[in-house]
Structure formats: structure tokens, C-alpha cells
Amino acid sequence: MPSASRPLSVTRRLTNLGFIGLSGLAAILVLAPLGAIFGYLVYKGIGSLNWAFLTNVPHPVGEPGGGMANAIIGSMLILGLGSIIGVPLGIGAGVYLAEFGRGRYVNLVRFTADVLNGIPSIVVGIAVYALVVLPQQHFSALSGGVALGIMMVPTIARTTEEMLLMVPNTIREAALGLGIPQWRTTLQVTLRTASKGVITGAMLAFARVAGETAPLLFTAFGNQFWNLNPNQPTAALPIQIFAYAISPFDEWHRQAWAGALILIVLIVVAVSAVRVVTGRGSMENNA
Amino acid sequence: MGVGIEVKDLNAWFGKAQVLKDINIKVGANAVTAVIGPSGCGKSTFIRCLNRMHETVPAAHLTGSVQVGDIDVYKPGTDAVDVRRRIGMVFQKANPFPTMSIYDNVSAGLRLNGYNNRHELDIAVEHSLRMAALWDEVKDVLKKKSGSSLSGGQQQRLCIARALAVQPELLLMDEPCSALDPISTGKIEELIFQLKEQYTVVIVTHNMQQAARVADHTGFFLMGKLIEYDKTEKIFTTPSDKRTEDYITGRFG
């Protein structure tokens, strides 16, 4: 038996240092691209970022002072509609999978969710074009929201399921044993216990679709003017960035960078805001 | 007031495995009854059949009848939720709701069944915590601390308070002290002793000294059968069945 007071052997200490170093390096390698992208966006975009950019609609080429205000608001509108559709559906499906579903049907739902998760976003766009845009005969923010909502569902459903399955069964039994009906147990005890993870899943899905361009091309379509009517073609940041980036004008290129920076900032702000709001009143930190 | 229990021809299964065989037992009101026996003998399943928790496990089913006070527990049309509301349960492992404060934990059974009167909730919470001998330790942090921030023994008393808050007629306890130190165990045993003035208590325990200390009657289960059921004193001094004697003297189990 090695005694506790004996110094660690050299090889063991070196191995230890080696592995700490390797895992640290891996962490840096994971974070580096994120830092690089954000840093480059700030470097390229900050110059074109000004009050006019945030408050004006696009101006014709050559005319100074144009901005992306309509696209910023349009993105919020489309993402809002997408969340209204995708979050409840996704959480509902996750609750079904974890709490109520049994047998083959569940496996089918789970499999479908996984397949849906792997479908290219442009295919979702085409499907919504056929299902919503064509019958309506026009592009709209609503159809964009439907496309993004559909893309959010599988991520939210599977994370909700995983998070609910992590809630110990003893918690469900405690609630049922008190004579609390099943539906209330699920909603106000099980789901509440898992709420942190469920919200993280929803935010993850939100952040993922916030940058989607392809499904918006044939749904929200884009627009150079103000529009707050969800039934009309609507500008969105990713579409605007795409349109400006492939244009031949330097001025528009610079605005595309600024738009990309704003998009990232909006996602970070939205995710942080939800975390702050939902984190309040939680008891877990008061141990 | 506590109520009596009458179980007739109770058989219970998990899938195809039969875990309870022809259980017949009558438990008096306002008394503490202990259920003892080796692991896997069906003790926990037995008490889970009394408040219809057994059926919450997939593929679990049973036959027979259970009468608790005026409730015919398994009569078609009897609502399982209603049964559980009237029969409290304390589990082996303390299971406070982790995201809720102490106050919300104790009042959960009332709030989630639709009671919202602040004043009445306050009274119920204080009363229940006092009964569970936890009030003095937590009265200043009721809404500040979460249930899971308490120590193990406190958590179990919190769970007892939570069960008492809905004013059940019968309290079932499934090895409530198995994860606790002797001091916490002592507190809970004292509590059980006081509870029988108002409640009927059925307690499953692995600890025979505990059964001897708190119970008026004791039932000995072995391999899904109720081998012997009598006054605790009789069970531990002059059991009539050889298997009971072997178990309590430590020859097996």
C-alpha cells in the first residue's frame, strides 16, 4: 500500500498534467471559432453600426443613411410567431414522450422527431411554401414563422423528453401520493422541476432557427419597407444579410456585416433575457 | 380522526410476477401498525395497494378489495386521485419538490388541489410543520429556502408535514427512517407516536427495534404472504409461527 505522505510519482504527476493540459486545449479549440467569428463580426460590422442603421429602412444604393430597422423588427416578428408555434408543440410532444407515451407509437413519434431534425432547412421552406404560401397566394411573416416553428419542434421535443426523464420518479410519486391529479403533477411538479433544462432546449432551438435563411426565402420572402402585418411579405435579418452580401456594392457589404453583428447580439440578448426572467423565483440557488 | 382498514383476498402482480398472495388483514383505527419482513417480501407493495399507488407502475395490477374507513378503494367508480388525497404517504427516500420553497412544499397538496386562501394556507403550513416537529427549525426561512436545502432528517419531516397538510385519514410510511441517523430517527418515531392520536398509521420498516418501539400491532410478511399478524408484544416475544420467530431472532432475512 502506498502511504498518503509519500510524494506522487513523477510519471503520475506528468500524466496528470498532460491530461489537464489536453482537456484545457480541447476547451480552447471549441471556444476559439466562436470567439473568432464574433471578433471578426465586431471588427467588420461595428464601423457601419450607427443610429440610422438601427432606425431606418434600406435606402437605394448610393443614398446614405439606409439601415435594417425593418429587418430587425421583421426578424423579431417571425421568430416570435415561430416560438408561439414551435415551443408549445415541442414541449407538448416532449411531455407526451416522457410521461404518457408507451409502446410503438412513441417510438414512431421519437423517430419522426429525429428525422425532422435532420431535414435540410430549405426542404422545410419548400414544404411550407406548398402548404401555406401557395394556398394564400402571397408570402408572409406568418408562413416564415410556421417554417421556423416546425424546425424548432424536434429539438425542443427531444430535450424536453430528456429533461423530464431526468426528474426522479420519487418526485412524481410524491405528487401523486398527495392526491394531485396526473395532469397537474405533470404540469406543476414534473415539468417545473425540469424547467431549467426545458427552457435551455427551447433557447437552443430558438438560437438555431434565428439565423436560418433558406426556409425564409420562399416564406417571409423579404421586404425593403416597414411591415408589421404578419400576413404580408416581411424583411428578416438573415435574408437581408444574404441579399446585401451577394450584391456588388461595397456599402451594402458593410451593412451586411453590421446586420450579422446585430443578429448575433439579438440572439444573445434574447437568450440571456429569458434566462434572467425564468431564473427569478427559482428556489434552487437558495440552498 | 383515523380510520380502520380491512383488506380482503388481496393479490398483486408486477407483470407476471405475483408479489402479494391472498392477504387478509384488519387494522384498527388510531393505532400504529408495523409491517416487517425481509427485502422483496411485498411490504412496500402492500401499503402501495392501500392508496392505489401500486397501479402507477406500468404493468402492475391486483385483485381483491380494500376498505379504508368509508372508502371502498377498488370499487369501480372510486377515483384513485380522491383515494390518495385521503390517504397520506411518506416515502423511503425524502422527496421534497426541489424547485419549491419549504412553504410551497408543505402547501403543495392543498394549492395544487385548488385551495388558494392565503390565510388558511398559512395556518395549515404552520400546523403541519408543528406536528412534524420542524416548525422551530424552519419558521424564519419558510419562503426563502428550498425544500431540498434541508438536511436529510429535516427533509423527511418536511415530507411528513406535506402529507399531513392535506389532513389525511390514514398515513402510510414506507421505511421513512431507512436513510436517517439515529437522532433524526428518534424524532420521527416520537412523531409517529403522537400522530396516532389523530391518525391511523401503517409503517413499513426493516428495523425490528423500530417496529417494537412504535407499533401497537405488527404484521410479518414473507414471500408475498402475511405470515403472522398480532399485537407487537406478542410477535416479538411469543410468535406463533416458526418463520416469524426465525426472522425476528435473526436466523434469516
Walk me through this protein's architecture.
The complex is a heterodimer of chains A (287) and B (253). Chain A is an all-alpha fold and 287 residues long. Chain A has a domain at 68-236: MetI-like fold (Orthogonal Bundle). Chain A is 73% helix and 0% strand. Chain A contains twelve helices and no strands. Chain B is of the alpha/beta class. Chain B has a domain at 5-97 and 169-248: 3-Layer(aba) Sandwich (Rossmann fold). Chain B is globular, with a radius of gyration of 18 Å. Chain B starts with a strand and ends in a 5-residue tail after the last helix. Classes of the chains: A mainly alpha (287), B alpha/beta (253).
Spans of chain B of 5+ residues with little confidence (pLDDT < 50)?
Answer: none
Number of helices of chain B: 10
Order of helices and strands of chain B: EEEHEEHEHHHHEHEHEEHH
Largest interface, per-chain counts? A-B, 27 and 36 residues
What is the overall pLDDT average of chain B?
A: 92
What's the Cα radius of gyration of chain A? 24 Å
**Largest sheet descriptor of chain B:** 6 strands, mixed
Query: What spatial order of strands do you see in the largest sheet of chain B?
Result: 6-7-8-3-9-10
CATH topology of the domain at 5-97 and 169-248 in chain B: Rossmann fold
CATH level 4 superfamily of the domain at 68-236 in chain A: MetI-like
Integer average pLDDT of chain A: 90
Percent of residues in β-strands of chain B: 25-35%
Ends distance of chain A? 40 Å
How would the global form of chain B be characterised?
globular
Number of helical regions of chain A? 12
